Amino acid sequence: MTAPAFLHPAAAAALAALSQLLGPRLSAGQSVRALHGAGESWLPAAPPDLVAMAETTEEVSQILSTCNALGLPVVPFGAGSSIEGQIHAPLGGLSLDLSAMSRILRISPEDMDCTVQCGVTRQRLNEELRATGLFFPVDLGAEATLGGMASTRASGTTTVRYGSMRDLVLGLTVVLPDGRIVKTGGRARKSSAGYDLTHLFVGAEGTLGVITELTLRLFGQPEARQTLLCSFPDIAAATTTVVASLQCGLALNRIELADQLQMQAINAWCSADLPVAPALWVELVGSPPAVAHDLALFQELATGAGALRQDIARTADEANALWRLRHSALYASRALRPGIKGISTDVCVPISALPDCIDRILAVVAETSILAPLVGHAGDGNFHLVLLFDPADPDETAQARHINANLIRIALELGGTCTGEHGVGLGKKAYLPDEHGPALDLMRQIKQAIDPRGIMNPSKIFDL
Amino acid sequence: MTAPAFLHPAAAAALAALSQLLGPRLSAGQSVRALHGAGESWLPAAPPDLVAMAETTEEVSQILSTCNALGLPVVPFGAGSSIEGQIHAPLGGLSLDLSAMSRILRISPEDMDCTVQCGVTRQRLNEELRATGLFFPVDLGAEATLGGMASTRASGTTTVRYGSMRDLVLGLTVVLPDGRIVKTGGRARKSSAGYDLTHLFVGAEGTLGVITELTLRLFGQPEARQTLLCSFPDIAAATTTVVASLQCGLALNRIELADQLQMQAINAWCSADLPVAPALWVELVGSPPAVAHDLALFQELATGAGALRQDIARTADEANALWRLRHSALYASRALRPGIKGISTDVCVPISALPDCIDRILAVVAETSILAPLVGHAGDGNFHLVLLFDPADPDETAQARHINANLIRIALELGGTCTGEHGVGLGKKAYLPDEHGPALDLMRQIKQAIDPRGIMNPSKIFDL
C-alpha cells in the first residue's frame, strides 16, 4: 500500500493517535475512503482522509475528543444514503462510520417505545418489532440508519399520519465535539423541563455532535387498511381532494401524488394502462368500520373534485399491486432515459400552494430539454421532481440547476422550504439565506457555541 | 406617587430611555408592578421594577435592545397564569407585558394553519375559528396566552391525540436579546432546512428571547364524539386499560385519571354518587362508525381490566355533565380544605410506570398530614397531586416540599420528568441537575451564546 495522501494536515496525527484505540477499525485505505465519500449525492465525491468504525458511545467520545484536540474534521456516516452531500468530506478529515452500532437496546411494548443504537436501520428495527405488533412508521425510499434519519430530519410516505423524525424521537444520546456524552429528552411522552435539546440535534446533520442512541415512539399495527388509486383531470383537482380529506380528518396513512409524465413512465415500465393524468394513491387505516366510512367519504370527495377513475383494491394483493406501481416510480422515471440516474428535488409548500407551485415549475421545465417526472407526499405539501439530466453534459447540468433554483425560489415565495426531507448538506446551502434570513446567523451562533473548533461535519448546512 | 424603589440599578435608566417610546404604556407604579410579580405560583411574589406594554414586534425589539445595552433583566408576561414562578422578577428589571399583542394575523382554512400574535389566548383563537369548522386543540385549565403556552411547552387534556405545543407550533417570530428579529420554521408542514430553532424557543420560558408571533396547526372538528366515565378497583387496572387502548390505536381525544380521594372530593362538591375508586374519563372522536367501534372495544378492555362501573353518555348533555365533574376537580379538591389553594405537582413518567409511581408517592403522602387528591392525563403518563397545605404553616410547607421532592425523585427513577407541562421557572430549578446531568451544561452554553448579557428572564430554568 502506498502512503496515503491526506487532504487535512492533522489527519496523519489523528491516524497515529487513534490507531491503538481502534486497531483495524481505523483505515486510511483508498478504497474504504472512496466508499465513504460520495453517498447518493449528485455532487462530485469528496472522500475523507481516514475512516473509523466506532462500536460504542465511549469510543465515539474518545474519537471526538482526539479529533477536537487536533482540529480534524469529523463526518458522521450511517448507511451512506444521504443525497445532498451530507457525508462528503470536502476538507478531508475522518469519516466516522457508525453502521456497526446496530444493537436494539430496549423495546417496551407497554410504553410503545424503544431505544436503539444509531446504526440500526429502520428495516432492521421493524423486523425486530414484528412479534410485538408494533412498528416504527417513518417510511422512506432508502435503506437508511435511524441515526442518519434523525440527523436529516427524514420523513416519507406515512408522515401525514405519524409525523416525521422530528415528531417521533423522544430522546437521544449525543457525543458533543469535545467528547462529552449527553442524554437529551427521555422516555416520558412530554416534558417541560428546560430546552428541547433533542430537536436541536434532530436535523443538525451531524454538525453539532454525533447521535449514538435514539429513543423512538412506536405504534400498533392498524386493524384494517384500504388502498385506492384515483386519476384526476389536473393537479388542482387532486390537491383539492387532499385538502378536503385532511379537513375531514380522514384516517390517511399515505396520500401520494404523481403527475402525468410520471404516470406515463409507470405505464411504460410496469406495462400498465392507467390514465395518463395526475393520480393519487391513498391508504386509509384504522378499525374496519372507520376505514369503510372514510373510504366512502374519500370517494365522494374525489368524485366531487372531478376524479376520472378510481381503482379500489379489493384484496391485500390488489393493494400491494397498486403500491408496487407507486414504488416503481423512480425506476420508471429512470427508464425514460436509460443510463441516467437523475437527481431529486425536494421542496415542501403549504398544501393549498401545491397546484400553483407545480404549474409554475412545470412551465419552467417545459422551456428546457430536461424530463422531470413528479411524485410527492401530497398530504405534507412535499414533492420531488426527478431531473433526468446527464451530469457529464455541462448544458444539461446547467438546465437542471436552473430548474432546481427556480423551484426553490417559487417554493419560498409560496411560504415553503427548499427541503422537505432530504436536508441541506452541501447541495442546498446556497438557498438557506433566502429561506431563513437573520435566523441563519442564529444557527451559526449555536454552532460556534457547541463546536467552537468547527470539527463537526464542517461546511455543511452553512459556512461560518 | 412616591418615587419608586428599584431593585435593579439599571431600572431608572431604562425608565428614562423607554418613556418616550412607550409613553403611558411604561409604568413604575406599585400596583401595576405588584400585578406582574406573582402569577399563579406558590412562591413569594417578586415584582419587577418596571412594566412595559408592547404592541408590536418592533417595539419589543427596541425594548430589548435598550435593556440589553443597560443590562436590565426582561421578564416576558402573557396572562400571568404560569405556576412555577416564570413571571417573577427576582432581580427586578422590566416585566414585558405582551397581552396587548392580541391580533389574529391570518387564518388559512385550506392549509389548516394560522398566525397569531403572542398575546392571543387559546380561548380567543377558538372563538375566531368557530365559523371555519377548525379549532386549536391544546386544552389546559388556565386562560393562557399562546405565546406563554409555547414558552412553557404547555399541553393539556387532548395531548394524547393532538400533541402539545411542541407538536403544534410550525413557526415563530422571535426577538432576540439584542433586538434582532428572526423568523423560525414556516408554513410548510415539514422541513429539513437547518437547525430546528422553533423547538429551541418552545419551552425556553423566555430565557432566550421573546416570542411575538406564532404559526400554529389547526384541526377539523371531529364528526362524532362519545364520552364515558369508568371506575376501577385500583390505579393499575385503570392504567392497564389506558395502555391497551393506546396499543389498539383507539381514537382517544382525552383519557383522564382521578384517584379515590379525588373522586370522594368530586362526590362531595358536586353532590354525585360515583364509586369512591380510581376513575377514567374517556372521550373518543372520529366518524360515527369509528367512534361506535372504538367505544365497544374500550368497554371490552375496561371490563377485562376489572372495571367496577361504566357510565356512558347517551347525549351531548350527558357528556357535558360527565366532563363538568372532571373540570370540577380542582375546586372539589380545594373544598376538602376551605381557604387553602394548594399547589400542583406535575411529573410525567412512561405510562407503564404510572401505577408504581402513584403507589409509591401515595405511601409518602400517607406519612404526612397533607391531603393530596390526584388527577392526570393518563394517556401521556402525566399527573398532578394538589397538595393542600397552608403556606403560612412552616411544618405543613416542609411536608408539602417533602412530598414534591420525593415525587420527582421517584419519577426520575422511573425514567420520567419533573414537569410534564408546567415548566421549570424558579420552582423546579433544583431538580434539573438530576434530570439532565451534563445536558444542563449544554443548555447553559446555548443560553450564553444567545443571551451573553443574561438579560432574558434571568435565574429561570437554571443558574449560570
Describe this structure in words.
The structure is a homodimer of 464-residue chains. Chain A has helices at 11-22, 30-35, 57-70, 122-129, 146-151, 159-162, 165-168, 197-201, 235-247, 260-270, 288-304, 316-327, 329-335, 354-366, 394-413, 432-436, 439-450, and strands at 26-27, 50-53, 74-77, 94-97, 104-108, 113-117, 134-135, 169-175, 181-185, 210-217, 219-220, 224-231, 252-258, 279-286, 309-312, 343-344, 374-377, 382-387. Chain A is an alpha+beta fold. Chain A has 4 domains: 11-97, Uridine Diphospho-n-acetylenolpyruvylglucosamine Reductase, domain 2 (2-Layer Sandwich); 104-220, Uridine Diphospho-n-acetylenolpyruvylglucosamine Reductase, domain 3 (2-Layer Sandwich); 224-332, Alpha-Beta Plaits (2-Layer Sandwich), CATH 3.30.70.2190; 337-429, Alpha-Beta Plaits (2-Layer Sandwich). In chain A, strands 15-12-14-13-17-18-16 form a 7-stranded antiparallel beta sheet, sandwiched between helices. A 5-stranded antiparallel beta sheet of chain A has the order 5-6-10-8-9. The longest helix of chain A is centred in the last third of the chain and has 20 residues, at 394-413. The first copy, chain A, is globular and about 65 Å long. Chain A starts with 10 loop residues before the first helix and ends in a 14-residue tail after the last helix. In chain A, 59% of the residues are buried.
